[in-house]
């Protein structure tokens, strides 16, 4: 290595966790969103003016959720941000009342057989 | 009062399942490097496989405390995933697990709440899928072994593969072509059927007269 890094080798222009103000964990709720937790815009969320408090990445995520309910994984892929960063930003949006986040099915209570049957039939019909 | 006063107990905290009725299920696709995990995900997914990245410290740990971030060199690990919408409000997400062993801890997170897993195997290097088989057996996560039948590989029967892997009785082995959508669908169907049987059996176990207290 000659000590010079160019382009992608040099890493992102803005360090990822700069977007979160150095935080690597979501706020007071302290919830670690699962990759398949679904995020929807909270219809009862604050007025547009409130969004001014949020950064451009927050607004980008909000925009993605507005088009359709999305999983955390999809948001991360489409916003081109690391999952960890997206989790922190989503924590902010949740606290600001801008989004709702679903809990994935808890492991101890895997989906009912009715749902599994529906999945099997759905797969057959694809 | 005010904007958020829209119901009891709902003040911007996590909503219950009822509030956001959509349900997402997770299936993992594991197996050795180059066995066709992303190919399988792509064959059955309705979206082009997407890629998420996690930041890791050089030591291979998730970056999750601010203390070390500025000092540790970070690296990223990518996970490819796809989606199948069963109906509005019910979707299936497929995650290709990172192949390298040093990312095991990511599997722990991925397998949390997973419906089950597909372990892709290549009969030319069956040993590559041993770690995945061990992982899911130890954590009692229902899985099927899908043998990706590469054109130039000798064909083995499902029973032979099952014996070679020393699988627990009942673990399905399916021969498949990871590039083929119908073949991939069949693998998933076998997995969901099997996961249903496993869950039912555990449920019966837990309420059976001889069930030991846990």
UniProtKB/TrEMBL annotation, chain A:
Domain of life of the organism encoding this protein: Bacteria
Family matches, as InterPro entries: DUF742
Name of the protein in its database record: DUF742 domain-containing protein
Organism: Streptomyces katrae
Lineage of origin: Bacteria, Bacillati, Actinomycetota, Actinomycetes, Kitasatosporales
UniProtKB/TrEMBL annotation, chain B:
InterPro entries: Gliding_Motility_GTPase, Gpn, P-loop_NTPase
Alphabetically ordered keywords of this record: ATP-binding, GTP-binding, Hydrolase, Nucleotide-binding
Pfam family, one: ATP_bind_1
Protein's name in the database: ATP-binding protein
Stated family: Belongs to the GPN-loop GTPase family.
Molecular-function annotations in GO: ATP binding; GTP binding; hydrolase activity
